[in-house]
Amino acid sequence: MNSISRRKFLQSVSAVTAGAVIIPNLLSCSPSKKINIAVIGVGGRGKANWSACMQENIVALCDVDENRAAEGFKTFPNAKRYKDYRKMFDEMANEIDAVIVAIPDHSHFPATMAAMQLGKNVYVEKPLAHNVWQLRTLKKAAHYYNVITQMGNQGHATDGIRRVKEWVDAGITGDVKEVFAWFNGPEFGPDKYFEKTDPYPPIGQAIPKGLDWDLWLGPAAKRPYNSAYVPKSWRGFYDFGNGELGDWACHTLDAPFWSLDLGMPNVVETEFNSGAPAGFLPDKSIIRFEFPARWNKPPVVLKWFEGGLKPENRPEWKLDKLAGSGMIMVGGKQNIITGGRPNDAQLMMPKNEWDNWVANEMPDPTIPRIDGGPQKEFLDAIKGDGAMPGSNFDYATRLTEMALIGVLAQRFNTRIEYDAKNMKVSNHPELDSYIKEPVRKGWEYGEEVW
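Structure (tokenized):
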């Protein structure tokens, strides 16, 4: 961007620790306290996000696919339209207060960095970035530019996840040493979030009218267009997405990560992998995370099951069967169960006991509740009507990093011994190139500096 180069940012970002901060104006549209929002990625999750911001000013819409963005264009006829967010920022930087980033994982980082370099507050869909280096850089940048940040893992704004943390903090569960999480995807097929191709890799097809394929690729290596990538089945290709684990861990593992202060695993190992072509996710897998002791908390083993696989249903859980997706924290005193998201957390006990516990023993809340969901939490923080969102980049980068180390073990069907301090895979140094991935010429963001 014209205002500050990526190289200049990366050279100076270490100054954060010395107290150097750029303080942007949070609102350029102050009199009405309405926020001027630019949306990058207008269809899909973009729509879900701008639909929750209708009371604000949507001033710019950016999407590489005119067809995907058509409903948004129709809904906001006065918003300026773009295909390239770099051009949008060059032309409209002074008219934008906040940016929603809802594009494929591989493009989250450059769009978010460009926004923050201009002092814009950012709401980014999960998973926050595509590799660990990007996550660490986004965390530093959020402090350096002093902006409001939020990752869109909706469950982090619910009462359910707050109850889990309150129960753990109050000692109701006792020590938690095991966590089980499972998800019933990936589901494959046309118009699904995952699609297999024959032959593999996908062969070239004619680019649909209205799609700028080169801009869609962004920092990823150039390749022919195929409908298996766009608009939504890119998640199964590791060059673009992070599979089911990268997508849903930010929901399903949010509660244990927060409440147990898990931090980074020192070992992540694939216990089962059904196999897949290079660069594509497997149908089924089991991933084991090992977390060391933290302060007064014991080590934790977390197992992730996907593709319809589930942990063995233990008699003491008193469940007829496990739901399609869910999470169980096994405590020394009480167990906690949630669905695929942490919204509806419950102690694992018969219904009559649970009803009595809720009525007579539920502890008083200690964590402030969020009214209106994650988008409103983000907007209120910008207006000064609320605190920094709970899934801000300080938190969201760590949650996502934990998930991405699991994705790395899944992708290469291996055991990862992770040196989080140095961002290194101790036992497989050849995998360090996936901790910090190369980018296509023209999309560099100063990776040579750090």
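Confidence is low (pLDDT under 50) at residues 1-7, 9-25, 446-450. The CA atoms of residues 349 and 355 lie 10 Å apart.
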